[in-house]
Amino acid sequence: MVIVFIMVIAMVICQRCAELLVAKRNTRYIKDAGGYEVAAEHYKWIVSLHVSFFLSLIGEVSLRASTVPISFYFWPFLVFCPAQLLRIWSMRSLGRFWNTRIFVLAGKQPIVCGPYRFIRHPNYLVVLLEVGMLPLTFGAWKTALFFTVAKIMILKVRIAAEEQALQKAYQYEAWMGEKGRFVPVRKQRG
Fold it and tell me: Which N-terminal stretch is annotated as signal sequence (predicted)?
């Protein structure tokens, strides 16, 4: 199981690093097109939390492995894997506009294709599923619990800032107002 743990964690960390490269490339494109970043002040906390998540996961599993063999629980992994497909679908749907930061590009309409046809924030749903299910796959329930709560708290701040900026720039509510943030339900207007 140690090899499986190392392989899965290494794969996920490599995926996150590749996403940072994509975000950097997309940042250049958006800025060159006249876009600007909003709510940058909380980004450092998101990065710190994400790095801490991986350190905590590795630490909790390693400490437990000194007394109990590393476990592999299949059901959380069955949730984690499709969540990664949703992440890829979200990124592909946003294309050059996908980013780990919040950018506004005046004159563009919100993207409402792919998973954005159904929910407002599929990528944030993936983040929440990941911080819950990846640790549970290896029995790290303390990491799962702490970081799920922490991510919910920071995403409340981030989503509010993002939706406010998008509303100001694009009349976001007119495009996405009937959609749920994380589940495909229609909100009643009025």
Answer: none
- CA 75, 80, 84 angle in degrees (round to 5)? 155
pTM score of the predicted model: 0.90
Q: What ranges do the domains of the chain cover?
A: 1-177
pLDDT tens digits, residue range 153-170?
Answer: 999 999 999 999 999 988
